[in-house]
Write a structure and sequence with these properties.
The structure is a single chain. This protein starts with a strand and ends in a 9-residue tail after the last strand. It is of the alpha+beta class. The chain has 4 domains: 2-204, no CATH class; 213-406, no CATH class; 419-556, no CATH class; 572-683, no CATH class. The strands form 4 sheets. Strands 1-6-3-4-2-5 form a 6-stranded mixed β-sheet. It has a 4-stranded antiparallel β-sheet with strand order 9-15-10-11, covered by helices on one side. Strands 12-14-13 form a 3-stranded antiparallel β-sheet, covered by helices on one side. The chain is built from 28 helices and 15 strands. A hairpin with a 2-residue loop joins strand 13 (643-647) and strand 14.
C-alpha cells in the first residue's frame, strides 16, 4: 500500500485510465448542500488566492482481472463522481456558448483528459463507470437533455452545477478549472496481490456512520472478486435480495442469522456476526448468496402477505398489522421447511393461526415481551426435535407454544378472558387497535369491510357508547352508581365500538346517538348490531354486550389444542434476561456465549460461569473481592464456609437459593457489560396442566 499527496487532477489524468466504482459500493448520494459547499469552497480558493485545498483521500486498487489502466475505487467514489459532474457541466456550458473561455482548447482539454478516452472503443469512452442505475444516468448526461434521467441523484446534482454556473458566472471557466486543480487528495493505492482490500475498507469505515450493516455485508461478499464476477453476483443475487427486502437488507440478514444461529445479534453487530458465521463454517460465498436470495423471497412473501395460499395471506396481513417482526426469524425457517418438506396448506395456516393467537393473547394480557426473541430464535429447532411420521408439524408446534411457562407463556382462557374483559382497550397502541377492531368486525368472513383502511383514513373512529365525559343526562340515565359504572366500564371493550359520524356528537343522549343520521341504527357494522336495538345503555346492557364480546373473543382466539403427546416432559430453556422463576427446577445444561455445557447442579453452573467471566477479565472479579458491600459481599479472598473457589484468593458465595444465584449472575453480567441473553439455562420440563 502506497500513499502520497497529489492534485486530484493528476490522479484523474492519464490516457486510457478508467475509474470503476465496484458494485459493492453504495449508490451516489451527495446532497445538494454538499455540492453547494464544494462550489463555495472553490470560489474561496480563487478569491483568497489559495494554492491548495484538501479534498480527502481516495483509495484505489488496480483491477488485475481487467485492463491494466482500470482502477477500482475502494473509497472516494462520491468525490470523484461529483468532480466529474462539475467538469461535465462546465464542458456542456462551454459547448453551448453559455460560458466562454479565453483558452480555446480548455473545453477539449477537460473533456479528453478527465471525462472521456478518445482512443477507447465507442462503447467504453466514458472514463468513470459508476454503479447500478448511476452509470446509465451519468452516460446520459453526455447526450441531449431529453435523454437525461431526471429521477437520478446524478442528474439532480449535475443540474445544480449546470444551473448555478449558468446563472451566477462568478468565476470564468479558467478560474474554476484552476480552483479544481488546487484540490489535493491523499492517493492511497493498494497492491492487488499483497493488500487485503476488505480489511482496509473495514478500517476506513470502522465508525459505521456511513455504511449500514447490509452495505458492509454486500461489500464483504463481493469485494475481492474480479469485476466481471462482482457484476454477475450482484445482478444475479444481491440486486434481487435488495428488491425482495425493500432494501431493508440489514434487518433481513439479522432475522436470517437469528433463525440459523438461534441467537439474535444486536442491530450494530449484524455484519460482524455474518462474517463470523461465514468464516467459521467456511461457506462458499456464491452458494450463500443463492441461499440468501431464496430466503429473501420468503421474506417478501411474509412482509407482503403474498403466498400461494389466500387463507395464509389473510392471517399474514393480520400479523403484519400487529408489527410482530420479532417472529420473522422463525417464519423464515418455517417457509424454508414448507418449501423442502411440502407442508400442507392446512398445516401451514394452522401454524400461522396459532402464532397469531399466541401473539394476541400475550398482548392483551400484558405478558412481558423480553422472552419473545429467544422463543422465536429457538422455535424451529424446538419443533424439529419431535416432528416425525407420526407427529405432524402443526400439532408439535401447538404443543411447544402451549407448554411454555412464565414470561414465555400462552395465556389460558381464564387469564385471557379476564384481561380481555377488563383491559383499557381504548389506550391500545394504534396498530394493535386497528387489528382488534378489524378482527372483531370481520371475524372470519370473506366479505370484508376495510376497517383498517377506513380507520386510518379517519372515516371510522373508535366511539365510547357511554361517553368519555358524562353529561347530566348520562349521570341520571346510569343511576346513582354512575361514577362506579363509569370508572369500571368507560374504556372496556363492552363500551367501545366503531362509528362514522362526527365525534362532536359523542356526548349526546343514547337514543340520539342511536337514531341520528349515520348513528347506530344506520350502521352496517356488525359491531353495532346489538347496540342498535337497545332502548337504553346502562350497566345491564354493558354486561350483556360484555358477555357477547367474551364469547366472540374465545371464538376468534381459541386456546390451541394439540394431539401431540411427548414421550417425556419437554425440557425448557430460559435465558438470563427472562422473567422466569427457576425455583424448584432441576438444571440439565446451559449455554454461555454460544457454547453449551452440561451441569449436574445449580452450584456447578454458577461457579463455572463466574470462572469463565474471570478468564475474560480477572480485574473485574478482583475489584469485587476488594469491595465490602453490595455485590462485593458475595466475594471473599480466603476459603470460607458457604463459598466456592473461583481462582487463587477468590471465593464466591454459593450457599444461596437458586433465584439468589440468578440475581448475582445478572449483577456480575452488568459489571462486565454483557447482555443477559449470553447465558441460557436448560431445565427439566414438567407436565403441563390441561387447559381449563
Amino acid at each position: 500500500m502506497n500513499g502520497s499527496a497529489q492534485p486530484l487532477v493528476k490522479f484523474l489524468d492519464g490516457a486510457g485510465k478508467r475509474f470503476i466504482i465496484p458494485v459493492y459500493q453504495r449508490n451516489y448520494d451527495w446532497k445538494i448542500d454538499n455540492c453547494k459547499q464544494l462550489l463555495d469552497d472553490l470560489e474561496k480558493v480563487i478569491l483568497d488566492h489559495r494554492e491548495s485545498h484538501f479534498f480527502g483521500s481516495i483509495v484505489s486498487v488496480a483491477n488485475i482481472h481487467g485492463a491494466t489502466s482500470e482502477l477500482l475505487i475502494i473509497d472516494g467514489q462520491q468525490r470523484i463522481t461529483t468532480i466529474s459532474l462539475l467538469f461535465l457541466a462546465m464542458v456542456n456550458l462551454m459547448d453551448e456558448g453559455v460560458l466562454t473561455a479565453s483558452d480555446p482548447v480548455l473545453v477539449q482539454r477537460i473533456k479528453m483528459t478527465y471525462l472521456v478516452d478518445q482512443f477507447a472503443p465507442e462503447e467504453r469512452k466514458v472514463k468513470l463507470k459508476p454503479i447500478k442505475d448511476d452509470s446509465d444516468a451519468f452516460e446520459r448526461l453526455f447526450k441531449s437533455k431529453d435523454e437525461h434521467n431526471n429521477a437520478s441523484v446524478v442528474t439532480r446534482n449535475y443540474n445544480y452545477f449546470y444551473n448555478r454556473l449558468k446563472d451566477e458566472q462568478k468565476l470564468t471557466p479558467e478560474e474554476l478549472f484552476n480552483a479544481i486543480c488546487s484540490l489535493v487528495i491523499i492517493d492511497i493505492s493498494l497492491d492487488p496481490i499483497k493488500d487485503d482490500a476488505q480489511l482496509i475498507f473495514e478500517s476506513l469505515n470502522s465508525t459505521g456512520l456511513d455504511l449500514s450493516e447490509g452495505d458492509k455485508i454486500r461489500n464483504y461478499v463481493l469485494m475481492g472478486q474480479d469485476s466481471e464476477t462482482q457484476e454477475k453476483l450482484y445482478y444475479t443475487y444481491w440486486n434481487n435480495i435488495e428488491k425482495n427486502t425493500a432494501f431493508s437488507v440489514s434487518d433481513f440478514v439479522r432475522h436470517y442469522l437469528t433463525g440459523i444461529l438461534s441467537k439474535t445479534p444486536s442491530i450494530n453487530e449484524v455484519y460482524s456476526c455474518f462474517k463470523s458465521y461465514v468464516e467459521t463454517n467456511n461457506l462458499d460465498k456464491q452458494e450463500l448468496l443463492r441461499t440468501l436470495t431464496t430466503y429473501s423471497v420468503y421474506y417478501k412473501e411474509i412482509t407482503n402477505a403474498s403466498t400461494s395460499s389466500e387463507k395464509a395471506n389473510i392471517i399474514l396481513r393480520r400479523l403484519n398489522t400487529l408489527e410482530m417482526g420479532v417472529s420473522y426469524p422463525y417464519l423464515l425457517q418455517l417457509w424454508d421447511y414448507r418449501s423442502n418438506y411440502a407442508l400442507s396448506d392446512k398445516e401451514f395456516t394452522d401454524v400461522l393461526f396459532t402464532l397469531e393467537i399466541f401473539i394476541f393473547r400475550r398482548l392483551i394480557c400484558g405478558v412481558p415481551t423480553n422472552a419473545l426473541n429467544k422463543i422465536f430464535a429457538m422455535l424451529q429447532k424446538d419443533c424439529l426435535k419431535y416432528v416425525d411420521d407420526e407427529n405432524s408439524y402443526a400439532e408439535v408446534f401447538k404443543y411447544i407454544l402451549t407448554s411454555k411457562g412464565s414470561s414465555g407463556r400462552l395465556p389460558k382462557d381464564s387469564e385471557f378472558l379476564q384481561c380481555f374483559e377488563e383491559r383499557d382497550m381504548y389506550s391500545l397502541r394504534g396498530k394493535n387497535k386497528l387489528y382488534l377492531f378489524d378482527r372483531l368486525e370481520n371475524k372470519d368472513t370473506y366479505e370484508r369491510t376495510n376497517v383498517i383502511g377506513l380507520m386510518q383514513d379517519g372515516v371510522y373512529t373508535v366511539e365510547h357508547i357511554m361517553p368519555q365525559t358524562l353529561t347530566d343526562w348520562w349521570k341520571m340515565h346510569l343511576g346513582k352508581d354512575y361514577n362506579d359504572i363509569y370508572e369500571t366500564w368507560n374504556n372496556r371493550i363492552a363500551n367501545l365500538t366503531l362509528t362514522g359520524y362526527n365525534s362532536q356528537y359523542s356526548n349526546r343522549k343514547f337514543d340520539e346517538k342511536r337514531d341520528m343520521k349515520d348513528g347506530f341504527k344506520d350502521s352496517h357494522l356488525q359491531l353495532n348490531s346489538y347496540v342498535s336495538i337497545c332502548e337504553k345503555w346502562t350497566v345491564e346492557e354493558l354486561k350483556h354486550r360484555n358477555k357477547d364480546m367474551l364469547k366472540l373473543a374465545k371464538q376468534l382466539w381459541p386456546y390451541p389444542q394439540s394431539s401431540f403427546v411427548p414421550p417425556v416432559a419437554i425440557n425448557e430453556s430460559h435465558a438470563l434476561d427472562e422473567d422466569f422463576n427457576f425455583k424448584g427446577r432441576n438444571i440439565i445444561s446451559y449455554t454461555f456465549m454460544n457454547t453449551p455445557y452440561s451441569a449436574s447442579s445449580w452450584i456447578e453452573m454458577f461457579v463455572q460461569v463466574v470462572k469463565f467471566l474471570f478468564e475474560l477479565d480477572e480485574t473485574i472479579i478482583y475489584k469485587l473481592v476488594d469491595e465490602t458491600d453490595g455485590l462485593g459481599s458475595d466475594f471473599v479472598s480466603k476459603d470460607t464456609d458457604g463459598f466456592s473457589e473461583i481462582a487463587d484468593h477468590v471465593y464466591l458465595w454459593t450457599s444461596s437459593n437458586t433465584m439468589t444465584k440468578i440475581r448475582i449472575l445478572r449483577q456480575i453480567f452488568d459489571r462486565y457489560e454483557l447482555d443477559y441473553s449470553e447465558l441460557s439455562i436448560e431445565i427439566e420440563g414438567i407436565e403441563e396442566e390441561s387447559e381449563d
